[in-house]
Specification:
Elements (H helix, E strand, L loop, with lengths): L2 H21 L40 E7 L2 E5 L1 E2 L5 E2 L3 E2 L1 E6 L2 E4 L5 E4 L4 E4 L2 E4 L3 E9 L2 E16 L7 H5 L8 E3 L4 E3 L6 E5 L6 E9 L2 E9 L16 E5 L1 H4 L3 H6 L2 E8 L7 E2 L3 E5 L7 E8 L27 E8 L8 E5 L27 E6 L5 E6 L9 E6 L4 E2 L18 H4 L11 E4 L5 E6 L2 E10 L2 E9 L8 E7 L5 E7 L1 E2 L14 E2 L2 E8 L2 E2 L4 E4 L5 E8 L6 E7 L27 E5 L7 E2 L1 H4 L7 E5 L4 E3 L2 E10 L20 E9 L12 E2 L14 E6 L8
Parallel strand pairs: 2-12, 12-17, 14-21
Antiparallel strand pairs: 1-6, 3-4, 5-10, 6-7, 8-11, 9-10, 11-12, 13-15, 15-18, 16-17, 16-19, 19-20, 19-21, 22-23, 22-49, 23-24, 25-26, 26-27, 27-28, 29-30, 30-31, 31-32, 33-34, 34-37, 35-36, 37-38, 37-39, 40-41, 41-42, 42-43, 44-46, 45-46, 46-47, 47-48
């Protein structure tokens, strides 16, 4: 090289090194001598490093022209350690950059990350803890370079306390068992636990081997197969089989592999003293690199609680007591808190107050219209967008002795005084003239169903099958809730229900129908739950109200009702239910059950999930999520967040369903009316063009029943982004 040019190149190289040292004193081999090493830690896809999420990585390298990572591909074999953890030799990746024409090692000057959970990257050193194929990325500013790390594992993982015989379990099988859960084509969230594999084989002292296999993955998981639902043996499985709990430490090993392919799962069960195991059919399952977030509030029952002896009796804190002596079960709103990792749903509020109110279970308002009526039952609920307030229907959907509105401050565990003038006795309390006291915590004839606007100062409420804009003003423990005029004055149809206001306030969807369904508990046909020939309509909106430009989104059809629409948080999809009409009463209901009409939009056996774009187009039925016919899939709600799985964005959709959950709930019952609705979630992919069924098989939300042999009826999930801390 020409000496003068060589000198210029060296000077330019020196300036680059000095600049890099000033902004990131982190060069290693090939860099400036004497500069200390600094590492950047990748998160394995959690989005916490320089280019994956909220944190800022190393500043861009001045003069960087290109970037490469070596080796381009690398392989590592994992081995099983204690408690099922997997380890492997770290792999060093090197980033080489061309800086102002000079090639140099910039490994510690760039940010590093992996696309999936299961690998940590620090200064190019990648350590895998789960099998799968990972894209390792180096990034400086907008310049990126990639390599691939493939981790494989084949071996055994043994549960704590396993007492079976591995040799026999690994030998020849001599019969079959049915694996009732999971089922084929299920996709599980990354953070869902506990998950139980349930088999029909008897579990009295039994042991099991679960096998998970795919390219680069072969796991044998050995565990005892338990015949009872809890560790005390107090709740035998209704189906008489056994289950194996799959811990989160096990299922998270499958996330990276699932990103590229399904995993084949089979089960073997060895009876106590048996000479050969029985083996199940194989199914395909997967775990998404997308977890559950936010929280789900849902309606449920309190089975057979103690109750007051008469309606004149006051509340009796601090323990729950049913205030309606004619009723068998109480009513409650439960809550999952995925944000804070709550392992099981907890009671948020009941028809007798809250468990953390002061004092606990101090009573609650009864539903009254024009001085008549009774009943403390809490019904449809809606949560404000900031997660702080809950709108509650008191007395259920009846337009004669229900449809009262109360507002709960969730965090403070107290009802808001929204009708202060209704109480005339200044000395009334939950125990003294309590009938007068509770009047100020409800307003009459306002809402059967409600949906909050984006600023939490307006709601759209349905009453007598019409939609109204309700003004809400809450300051501390007091406020107002005033129903205003009916919305959508130009909409030609008389009957509407199921309002839903999008999270950003720009869209509004509802059910419009032309045939009210008069029947049991609905003598005027206007309670809004029961309707025929429903169609889905959509209108524009803003934070102050709904625009009068409603148009048809899903058309009306004979012998079909479309209902319960919900808009995704990014306004790209609308999910809704659709039912066909059949014999009455519906097979899921007895002659005296509420909502026993067919095609009435309430827990119908024929109800299925569909999606459509807000701009219109052909609706798509979610066959995989719906499962078998007759599952009664109802009231779908989108998760507040979405994530990437197999190159596409997916949402989770929560809904209720009467399908069997393994052998534990709704399995092998003598009649459909004996089933109980349960909460399920299913993944749904989105995109500009959706071809075919975009859903995966639904999964049961764990621990939603204290006793599996006496399951509660759980439905009306409301999925919120923000979960407030309950102070009480």
């Amino acid at each position: 090289m020409n000496p003068l040019r060589q000198s210029r190149v060296f000077s330019r190289f020196l300036l680059v090194c000095l600049a890099a040292a000033a902004i990131a004193p982190a060069l290693t081999g090939g860099g400036c001598a004497g500069v200390k090493k600094q590492s950047t830690t990748g998160s394995g896809g959690t989005g916490l490093t320089g280019f994956g999420g909220s944190s800022i990585g190393p500043p861009p390298i001045p003069g960087l022209e290109s970037l490469t990572v070596t080796p381009a591909t690398a392989d590592v074999t994992l081995t099983a350690g204690t408690a099922g953890t997997l380890t492997g030799m770290p792999v060093q990746f090197t980033a080489t950059g061309v800086v102002n024409g000079v090639s140099m090692n910039v490994t510690t000057m760039v940010g590093w990350d992996a696309d999936l959970k299961g690998v940590l990257v620090s200064a190019g050193l990648a350590t895998a803890s789960a099998p799968g194929s990972y894209v390792i990325t180096a990034k400086s500013g907008t310049t990126t370079a990639h390599a691939t790390l493939t981790a494989t594992f084949s071996g055994d993982i043994t549960a704590t306390g396993f007492s079976g015989n591995k040799g026999v379990l690994d030998g020849n099988s001599s019969g079959t068992t049915n694996m009732l859960y999971p089922v084929d084509h299920q996709l599980f969230p990354a953070n869902l636990a506990p998950i139980y594999a349930q088999m029909t084989a008897s579990g009295s002292g039994a042991s099991a081997r679960l096998n998970f296999s795919a390219t680069g993955l072969n796991v044998n998981y050995y565990a005892n197969c338990v015949a009872t639902d809890d560790t005390n043996g107090n709740d035998p499985l209704p189906g008489g089989g056994c289950y194996v709990q799959m811990p989160l430490s096990l299922t998270q090993l499958f996330i990276a592999t699932s990103e590229r392919q399904d995993i084949k799962m089979t089960a073997r069960v060895l009876a106590n003293g048996g000479s050969a195991p029985v083996e199940s059919q194989s199914i395909n399952v997967a775990w998404a690199n997308v977890g559950l977030s936010g929280g789900i509030y849902y309606w449920s029952t309190i089975p057979n609680p103690p109750k007051v002896s008469s309606e004149a009796a006051p509340a009796q804190p601090p323990n729950y007591i049913l205030l309606d002596p004619a009723q068998t079960n109480g009513t409650a709103i439960y809550r999952y808190d995925f944000t804070n990792g709550t392992p099981a749903p907890t009671v948020t509020w009941t028809d007798d107050g809250g468990p953390k109110s002061t004092p606990p279970y101090q009573g609650a308002p009864a539903a009254v219209n024009n001085g008549a009526g009774k009943g403390h039952c809490i019904g449809c609920h809606a949560i404000s967008n900031d997660g702080k307030l809950m709108a509650l229907t008191i007395g259920g959907s009846s337009t004669t002795d229900g449809a009262n509105l109360s507002i709960l401050d969730i965090g403070q565990q107290s009802l808001v005084n929204i009708n202060p003038g209704a109480s005339t006795d200044p000395n009334s309390s939950p125990t003294v003239n309590f009938t007068d006291y509770w009047k100020k915590f409800r307003v009459e004839k306002v809402a059967t169903e409600s949906t909050w606007g984006p600023n939490n100062d307006h709601m759209v409420s349905m009453y007598q099958s019409k939609l109204y804009l309700t003004q809400v003003n809450v300051t501390g423990a007091t406020g107002t809730a005033t129903r205003g005029s009916a919305i959508l004055p130009s909409w030609s149809e008389l009957y509407a229900s199921d309002p839903f206001w999008s999270q950003d306030g720009s869209l509004f969807v509802f059910t419009s129908y032309d045939m009210p369904d008069v029947g049991l508990y609905n003598t005027d046909g206007l309670n809004g739950d029961m309707k025929r020939r429903g169609k889905i309509a959509i209108a524009d909106a803003d934070p102050a109200g709904i625009h009068d430009n409603a148009r048809e989104l899903v058309p009306r059809m004979n012998n079909v009702t479309s209902f319960y629409p919900c808009i995704s948080t990014d306004n790209k999809l609308v999910v809704f239910n659709q039912s066909s009409c059949g014999a009455e009463p519906d097979v899921n209901k007895t002659a005296t059950d509420y909502g026993n009409q067919s095609c009435d939009g309430y827990d119908d056996s024929s109800s299925t999930l569909w999606i459509v774009k807000p701009g219109g187009g052909n609706p798509i039925r979610l066959d995989a999520a719906n499962g078998a016919a007759g599952n009664a899939n109802s009231w779908p709600r989108f998760s507040p967040d979405k994530g990437n799985f197999r190159g596409e964005l997916i949402y989770w959709v929560a809904f209720s369903s009467r399908r069997p959950y393994g052998s534990q709930v709704n399995y092998n019952l003598s009649s459909a009316s004996a089933t109980k609705p349960q909460l399920w979630i299913a993944a749904v992919r989105t995109g500009e063009n959706i071809v075919g069924d975009p859903s995966w098989g639904a999964v049961w939300l764990p621990t939603q029943n204290p006793k599996q042999t006496a399951p509660q009826g759980n439905h009306v999930p409301q999925w919120v982004k923000f979960v407030v801390v309950i102070d009480g």
